């Protein structure tokens, strides 16, 4: 029985996800870059791809890209505050542009895109969207009408796997950040306990009140205390 390109792609991305689960990767950008590169290979008609991150305040950035065109198009979206990637992320799950020169939904974006790039076809898939940020996986081609129903089907598969992998990576980053914060807070508590002869509960209460009074996150305050103590040790030496 023959195996379709989509099945091959799904198998490869699933293997990558298993690798993330078994051996967490610190460099999120590297993994997203690999997923984006693989996506171009398996979405019919695609020549370029990128992942767009947008914030509710209007900021847009490119998390991964196979070349310069996705980055340029994201810059245009931020400049014009409109575009298919933003619509896919905030409003719809899939957006397709068949011909940039004849598209009427985002006139300013399309006009700049035609002037600044050779891209004429776009298909964008929502990866995630929460109250503050969103992510979209986008495929591009220089030819008009490059994406058909098969492209949409394959893109949905890629987007689904990419969203899953990204979620795993974000959770891993959050866990690592929490561990790092716990460690630095523990160091600061230990320094306060030793310096002022107080117990762990009292040291944490001091940190908490200092954080509240200075409107500084607890982990940031702990960093300041630890770094100041280390600086004094260097001077004393």
From TrEMBL:
One Pfam family cited in the UniProt record for this chain: GAF_2
Record keywords, A-Z: Kinase, Transcription, Transcription regulation, Transferase
Residue ranges occupied by any ANTAR domain in the UniProt entry: 165-226
Superkingdom in the source lineage: Bacteria
Single GO term (MF): kinase activity
Matches recorded under SUPFAM superfamilies: CheY-like, GAF domain-like
Stated name of the protein: Transcriptional regulator
Organismal lineage: Bacteria, Bacillati, Actinomycetota, Actinomycetes, Mycobacteriales
